[in-house]
Amino acid sequence: MSMKNEGLIMSPRTKEQNEEIRKQRTQEILQAAIHVYAEKGYAASEIGEIAERAGLARGLVYHYFKNKQTLFRELFEYVMEKTQQFTKTHFEQEGSAFDLFHTYARIVCRQVLEEPAVSRFFTRISLDVHYLYTAEQFSPFKWVKTFLQPMTQAVEKGMEQKTIRTGEASLMAMQFWGAVSQGMNYLDQTKQDLADQGATAQEINEQLKELFEQVIESALFVIRPE
């Protein structure tokens, strides 16, 4: 008598299924890497810890990334591309240019409080980018210039609308982003300091709420009409 074990036979995955699994695993590894990196920086980050954070075997991480430098290059490019695309899309919206800057500052500063690893990534990466690329392979100045281009164009648009004060557009965009970046770092550090001092969640939220508004105002001061 023959027996059929059809229920035990597994069909091979399709190319689409394999690609979906690859994307999911890569995303899990990158998300784990950004948290480990935010805590330790590049030199002290280890593949084993990233694998543990992602809930994956160490060997599986090496299956997707041949070494730590390759992994962190992809992480760097992933975060930078995502940030650049969000910024470009945001400032291409219709409406008051000043309002776009106001909304942008609130979104990115709020992200610091909700996802502090992202803010710490930007704080650390400027010190560690030389581990990933040679000076010929990557120019921070060129990247920043490209990143700020949508803001520069929005400043010019705001000048035409008379919702933003007159000035050198590229310089004002850089000053705005500088104020936002410093504010993000300040909010994150203050939150850590308050937690270390034993402040309650309510006390932390109350202090951060006031500081948050000050950070937004300091960034908008750069472009506010006189």
Automatic annotation (TrEMBL):
UniProt keyword annotations, A-Z: Coiled coil, DNA-binding, Transcription, Transcription regulation
The species this protein was found in: Brevibacillus reuszeri
DNA-binding region (UniProt annotation): 46-65
GO MF annotations, alphabetized: DNA binding
PANTHER family attached to this UniProt entry: HTH-TYPE TRANSCRIPTIONAL REGULATOR LMRA (PTHR47506:SF3), TRANSCRIPTIONAL REGULATORY PROTEIN (PTHR47506)
Gene3D superfamilies: Tetracycline Repressor, domain 2 (1.10.357.10)
Residues that span the membrane, as ranges: none
Record protein name field: TetR family transcriptional regulator
Coiled coil: 187-214
UniProt xrefs under Pfam families: TetR_N
Organism ancestry: Bacteria, Bacillati, Bacillota, Bacilli, Bacillales
Record-annotated HTH tetR-type domain positions: 23-83
